[in-house]
Structure prediction request, 154 residues.
Amino acid sequence: MQRRTAGKPRLRGFTLVELMITIVVVSILASIAVPAYTRQIRKSRRTEARTALLELASREERYLAVNNAYSNDPTALGYSAFGVAVGSGYYTLSPPTVGAGSATSAPTFSLTASPVAGKGQDLDTDCKSFTVDSTGKQTSLNSSSSDSTSICWQ
Prediction:
């Protein structure tokens, strides 16, 4: 025969130890997932900046083919202005540095993309800025102004 206890039935639920173990496991997973997610987001924004630079470089080459010189006029290259954020707004394109060339040298240009301050991408210490020049050379500098081309132009 079973004895039935008088009073309240036993409530089932989680113990404090079970809840604490769950919190610890979730914290460990979050400490791994959040930095990995942030790293991937930064890499995708870098790709966007490189793409914008290469697009501007191709516009400069088209301009050169028609006008026999490079331009630092944004409207001549199809932009409203330089120094404004491009793409999703994490990088800005600086005005091109244009060299006119001479009878013995070809015209030149240099283009740079830099992160917008306060948007999060400026915290990317590996790839602080991207540069492309008229020879097609692609370079990048990290936050200490050292060459980081091998990391950033993959």
In short: The beta strands are 85-86, 91-93, 97-99, 108-115, 129-133, 138-141. The chain has two helices and six strands. Residues 45 and 88 are 8 Å apart (CA to CA).
